Amino acid sequence: MIGNCIDDLFDMHFLTSLEEVILDDIPFYTTNTANQMSWPNGRNGIDRNCKNSHRFFGVDIFIRESFNRVKLLHPKAEPFFDAWDIIEREIFDTNIYLERIDINLQHTGQHGTAHTDEGSDEVTGEDYTIMLMNNTKWKPEWGGQFQLLNDTETEVIEEYEYIPGRVLIFPGSNPHRGLASDDPYVYRFTTVFRVKLESLDIEELDKYN
To answer: Domain boundaries in the chain?
Structure first.
């Protein structure tokens, strides 16, 4: 298995309070762009063949450029750091270098395309992405699966159902995508924590396979 899946890490009270912040306090923008360094100017996330790219709704909560420089800190960041504290304590039981926190929003039919998450070279360690599924209510018939693909992005090799509070951990270098809801009135929210993991931290994830 490439991905690690953890359920029941957060209770419903915590998930509901986090969802309220997302729905009531945070505006979203069309800034979630895959392949950000693509043609023609590194902004649009569109390659020359108009594939393997997407632009949908998102918001940056926290971005760190190095140990000593924070580029962005959203005024409503605190509850997301509370979520990170739980992940860090319950899964790794040690301090992890957190590079950024982002929230993604997808509406009906707005499927993500296959892409990778590239991290900074300022800090040693392997790039990993930790994704939290935020919606407190979700029905299987709504879709919203998360998929890991092979290196050529031609085959789905692992798929995970969207389940409220589910946490997925996977290498940022592995192609992946999130599918949108099939219900026209349901939006799919995820919070993404991008981190650097050392080899001992990665070994800790074996217990979830």
So the answer is: 4-24+56-208
Instruction: Give percent helix, percent strand, percent coil of the chain, each to the nearest 5.
Output: 20, 35, 45
Domain 4-24+56-208 matching CATH 2.60.120.620: the answer reads yes
Residues in a beta bridge with 32 = 56
Percentage of the chain lying above the pLDDT 70 cut: 91
pLDDT-wise least confident of 5-9, 29-33, 71-75, 94-98: 29-33
Average of per-residue pLDDT values in the chain: 90
Phi, psi (rounded to 5 degrees) for 105: -135, 130
Measuring CA to CA, which residue among 170, 164, 107 is closest to residue 140? 164
Q: What is the H or E stretch that residue 85 is in?
A: helix 78-87
Give the list of residues 6+ apart from residue 162 with CB closer than 8 angstroms, or none. Answer: 133, 135, 138, 142, 143, 144, 145, 146, 188
CA dist list (Å): 163 to 27, 43, 140, 179: 24, 32, 8, 13
Residue 56 predicted with pLDDT over 90:
no
pLDDT at 35: 61
C-alpha distances out from residue 142 to 130, 147, 159, 183, Å: 22, 15, 15, 6
Environment class of residue 45 by beta-carbon count within 10 Å: exposed (0-12), middle (13-18) or buried (19+)? Answer: buried
What pLDDT is attached to residue 183?
96
The C-alpha atoms of residue 118 and residue 67 are separated, in whole angstroms, by: 17
